[in-house]
């Protein structure tokens, strides 16, 4: 049984975010534990106000790291502003933005939508679920029991929902689903490329982010899909294709629809057509049949492909799944493998953001950050933080030209630059979205 323990410190905003995390976890079949010692994952929603608070957060994180044999996730203000301090203190934790926590905790499972899920406008971000259900039968996933097989509404229906979001003020549309890559499979037609083209044809100034698409779902349309990305400037050059393991044997035991070579072919299609782009992928470590060589294959694949965004999850048994009946690995083994892969992850992701320093991009301001900062997304959906936003008259929904000045491993810092300067923007790094 997968269980969670969550502790929240600080303001009302943090408490609201924790409620959203819990709601997503319960929708995915998780339940609260009696305490951290009984939890498969412990979540610390942190605060940072004064130095004493920071010391308390580090102390509590270290205690939770010892108390739980499962994952530790740190989110909240201190995680975003001073995430490196947890690593420097030797705390084995995933440091994540709060809205990334459910995906990390849900053990590689598809996101869950209720039958009546409708588009939502949250600030300038429009959430567009394009279908419900999936076509997979993963041995570890409990979500499939709630969602069933994929059910795809017609393209025109989804386009009209996207158009309504744009008219309501959406500057970013997030196309979501259990597995966006299998949209249309139930009607015998691979319709995702056409749907994305149609959404991008809607009048208005906005960006589109494609949500999770399993490699097995998009393999076969990967060349066509990469062409769609290459010709549509409104599409973020970002693809989330969770590989889960670098071992074909483990993938077979997981009953994934792809093998490593198919994943590589998907990556190669996008690499061939896009320059500055982001590959996001997931790995599950400690699956019951994963041996040392299987784990090393995953490490080799990670070193080879070098995704710019990586989610590492320790396997946990879900009730009623076939994997729950397998003899599991010990918690120590899973924790060691997770720590080894997470260390490599930080190296790979940090390398990607370090390469951005000195480059110039056009970014969309998508939400407020901590203090007087704003969170922006560049054309490859990488996060760029701009500070002193109010002093500069920067609002959510604005489009800025920025120069990346530094990075903090998993995000970059940018300084606005003069749009009037003809040399202020590198053509290869910019999508043509004008300021609203």
What's the short version?
By secondary structure, this protein is α/β, with parallel strands linked by helices. The chain has helices at 12-27, 51-67, 77-88, 101-105, 143-147, 155-167, 192-200, 215-218, 222-231, 248-254, 260-273, 292-305, 331-354; strands at 3-8, 31-32, 41-46, 71-76, 94-95, 120-122, 125-129, 172-176, 207-210, 238-240, 278-285, 309-314, 360-368, 374-377, 383-386, 399-407, 412-416. The protein folds into three domains: 3-104, 3-Layer(aba) Sandwich (Rossmann fold); 107-354, Alpha-Beta Horseshoe (pyruvate-formate lyase- activating enzyme); 360-429, Nucleic acid-binding proteins (OB fold (Dihydrolipoamide Acetyltransferase, E2P)).
What does this structure look like?
- The chain is α/β, with parallel strands linked by helices.
- The protein folds into three domains: 3-104, Rossmann fold, CATH 3.40.50; 107-354, tm_1862 like domain (pyruvate-formate lyase- activating enzyme); 360-429, Nucleic acid-binding proteins (OB fold (Dihydrolipoamide Acetyltransferase, E2P), Beta Barrel).
- 34% of the residues lie in helices and 20% in strands.
- It is built from 13 helices and 17 strands.
- A five-stranded parallel β-sheet has the order 2-1-3-4-5, sandwiched between helices. Strands 13-14-15-17-16 form a five-stranded mixed barrel.
- The longest helix has 24 residues, at 331-354.
- Its EC number is 2.8.4.5.
